[in-house]
Amino acid sequence: xxxxxxxxxxxxxxxxxxxxxxxxxxxxxxxxxxxxxxxxxxxxxxxxxxxxxxxxxxxxxxxxxxxxxxxxxxxxxxxxxxxxxxxxxxxxxxxxxxxxxxx
Length: 103
Description:
Elements: E1 2-3, E2 9-10, H1 13-26, E3 33-36, H2 43-51, E4 55-60, H3 69-72, E5 78-80, H4 85-88
Parallel strand pairs: 3-4, 4-5
Antiparallel strand pairs: 1-2
């Protein structure tokens, strides 16, 4: 078991995600990937997916100055959630009419 700085058990989800994504890429289970992360641990995966033409973009939950330089050096397109707020906002839609055409 590995623990973080606060003494809490730390999962191995970075490595698990990388292995699963590479397996899925080889088996053509997706067309293009979007990685939602700012962690440089994913730079190798991003480079691999770029070479396989299976990568679309990084969507960083952190601002530009907090996103890993390793991800930036991959040459992948990176969008920052704070810059995309308008595009990601869910708006209230009109209620669909009932079966009889009334609302």
